[in-house]
Amino acid sequence: MLAEVLDSWKNAKDKQRPALALKVLAEAEASVSKWDRTKEKRRPGLDLSGAKPGTGSPARESWMEFLDVTGRSAFLRDLDSAQRNRWAEIVFSILQMTRYSLDDLLAQRVNEHPRQVLFRDMSVSPTVDWTYEQIYRHLRDILALRY
Questions:
Q1: Vertex 24 angle, CA 37 and 113, to 5°
Q2: Is the pTM of this model over 0.85?
Q3: Looking at the structure, do residues 74 and 15 belong to the same domain, yes or no?
């Protein structure tokens, strides 16, 4: 259901978007609430990142899309201040629920625009540009050496 409401918001005309943004929030809030009500019944350390039978929670990929779409200014402009605060609380719960990490964030950005410059090293001449993809590969190499 969350994916359908999110798609409706993405495909809506500008005048319809604020009302649909509220529906997106309500659906996400309901899904998070279902997870909150059942989390005490789960074993400690159980991976809650994917869809589990009976939890009513969307799959992790749906939550990643929710975070990506709703975290952009186009969505946030459709919300007033109180609604943005509500959105932030939902996002904090989703980050915990999915165990969202820096790796998730970078992987999303690399998939979206791998060759876009993330950093420009101006300490050398000529300057060196580092793209999302280069930074991601470099960080993964560093982590591979450590673990």
A1: 110
A2: no
A3: yes
